Amino acid sequence: MSEEIPLPTLAEYGFSENTGFLPKDLPATSLSDAYYGKWEAIANNLPSLILTRKIRNVVDRLPILDVKPSLLSNIRELRRAYSVLCFIANAYVWGIGETCDTIPDAIAQPLLRISEELEIAPLATYASLVLWNFKPVINDTDLVDDILDLSNLTTINTFTGGLDESWFYLVSVVFEREGSSCLVSGLKAIQAVRDNDSGTLIEQLEIIAQTIDKLGDILMKMNEMCDPHIFYHRIRPFLAGWKNMEEVGLPHGVRYGSNGDYKVFAGGSNAQSSLIQAIDIILGVEHFPYGKQKTDQGKTISAESNQNNFLKEMRGYMPRHSTQFLNHLSSVSNIRDYVLSNPNNERVTLAYDACVAILKSFRDKHIQIVTRYVVLQARKKTSGSETLKTGLAMTHGKKEQKGTGGTALIPFLKQCRDETGSSAASEWGKKILSTAVLRVKDDSSIPGIQKRSGQEDSEQGRKRAKLGLGSDLNDDSLDDSGVGRTAGHW
To answer: Does 328 show up as a binding residue in the annotation?
Structure first.
């Protein structure tokens, strides 16, 4: 029984109540050993090397460097080395405009060794791009109130050197930090169930609901400083992996080293965020293999697709301790069962269904973002930019858009959203969440939002309007392939 298993603590897995799945200590911004100076030089000049199309020529001249014991024993520097090599590897494969199916030994050998030590996939992942790739602009609490505030963060490395790419990663950094309270309250809520303490359970569920609501607001900040056109054509191609990439010249994936094996990996994806999976586990939200659904009898009905569960697969792309924490959390999750077994406790049911409703609303917002940044961009006619020849952008205009993780994009996200709604405990909640569709407009259309922020006539507000936040996109604007039936106005 789950009561016999001790609850996990964040500390035992190396996490903090204040930062969640972000590292407790700030990421290393460079490798201290000058021996690895050539790695750092390439990573720090990546935008220029990509722009001048010299990335492969330079990497091909690299010597094969040993992964020293001193590096393996220093977790901060090991993560830094992983991030550096992942940036270089993805840039090498995608950075010239024509794909390359072999990563040179000078990158492949140390990357495989370091990835093995960290137990994480050897390519650009959410961890290498986000979790271990940020730094405060001012690291002094005497000068700034919060060193991890979005206004005080910057990235360590990017592919493009642009603000849009940095913003794309940094919004996720703040997202992870803000979401840490979901982990804290989730563990307290699980303990409350064990103690049969419905009062504490309700209190913690309310905190979780409020935090998920904040996470939705943070997600929508993406529109402020990351332009959809730049994201789709300049940034997204570098985030792709080498799974399901036959049509762009990687039928077997990528070979690691001149004599290495071909390997297939999904690209960096927000599905590799441990936070959202943790929230699902805490609330008992089940997700099924893509193309399958749960029936009232608890069985699944197969649709056309017979793919494996993508979200479970993504745990292999997370840092080792994150995966271990999620597995431990799954073994003690008890909140939904408790709510279902106490149907007469209306306050508990209401608190739980509120969490589910807000999580579904969050996933609606995610679909909105993906529609704006991927689906609508894929439908727009262009003049044949060179960028379109790179990676995922080579699928420009095709009916079914894939995510960087290799899935059919909108259908997958819609299934996750619908599975969230079906997790409601009350029949009334299930009915409401099975029919309601969130309509996200720009801030000016939501009463009180701009008045509260004091930006009613600000330049930022004008920029957000220009980015198209006034469009009214919902499920009716998308067909089942994930392509919008209306092209929008970008």
So the answer is: no
